[in-house]
Amino acid sequence: MNHGLYDAGDCHIHFWTAGPEGAPLIVLSPGAFTDHSLFEDQVFALSETYRLLAWDPRGHGRSRPCGRPFTPRQAADDLIGLLDYLGEGKVALLGQSMGGYVSQEMIFKAPERVSAAILLGCTSSKISLSPLERFLLRVMPPIVAVMPTGLFKRQAMERSAFTKQAQAKLVKMAAPLTAKDVRAIAKAVALTVHREEGDDAISHPILICYGDRDRLDLIPKAAAVWHAETETSELAVVPEAGHAANLDNPAAFNRLALAFFGKHL
Question: Which residues contact 2 (CB under 8 A, 6 or more apart)?
Fold first, then answer.
C-alpha cells in the first residue's frame, strides 16, 4: 500500500491507499485502540477490484499525538477533510466497532458523499439503551482510568477476538498506545450513542454484521432491531468469529464484503 500524510491542523493523519485507478473507493475505519492493519486481509481480497483507503484515526496507530481528542464525530470531520485533500467525492465505507460509529457519523454529516457501508460489530448510533447499558457506558472511562494500562489493553484486545492469532494481532496494534491515549479513546466510547432530534435515519444501503462469538451481548440483539427498522439494510453473521470478525474469519467476512459491494458499487 502507498503511504500518505494529511495535516488536520492539530494532528497528522496517516493513511494508506491501494487498488486500481478509477475503481470505486472504499474507506476502511478500524475499531478503538487498533489501527489500519486491522484490515490487512481485506486489503488483499478487495484491492483487486476496488480502490482502498485505510487510515489511522487521530489518537490511534501512527496518528499520534493529536490536539483535539478522538471522538467519532471528530474522526468523521477528519475523514471528510482527508477525502477533500485527496479530491475524492462519493465513497463506500467499511467500519469495525468504533470504526462503524465513525462511518455512521460520516453518513450523518455528508450523506451525499456515501454510496454504501458495511458496519461490523457495532450498534446503531441511534439505539435506545436500557438504564443499565447507559450506566455501563458512563462508568467505562473512570474504570479504565484506574486500571493498569497494559492490563486493560491486553484484556480488551483478547476479548475482542475469538482466535489466538487474531488476539495476538490486536494486542500488538494496541501496544504503542500510552495511558493518555487509552483514557482519551475510552472517553469517546461513551459518545458513540446519541439520539438528538433532527438526526435522520440511514437510508443508504448498509450491511449490518457481527461475529457469532462476539462477547458483547448487546450486539446480536441490537443488530436484529436495527435491521428490522432500516429498510435499506442487510444482516449477516460471520461464523466462528468474535468482535473483530474480519480478523477472526477473514475468508467468510471477505465473501460477504465482496458480495455486498459488488451489488451496490
Answer: 16, 17, 18
- Assess whether pLDDT exceeds 60 at residue 198: no
Copy the grid coordinates of residue 7: 495535516
Domain containing residue 10: 2-264
76: DSSP letter:
H
Greater pLDDT, 255 or 130: 255
- Domain at 215, CATH number: 3.40.50.1820
- List b or e across 106-137, with b for residues whose CB sees 16 or more CB atoms inside 10 angstroms: bbbebeebbbbbbbbbbbbbbbeeeeeeeeee
Counted domains in the chain: 1
C-alpha 185/C-alpha 189 separation (Å) is 7
The three three-digit cell numbers of residue 190, written as one number:
461513551
User: What's the predicted TM-score (pTM) here?
Assistant: 0.95
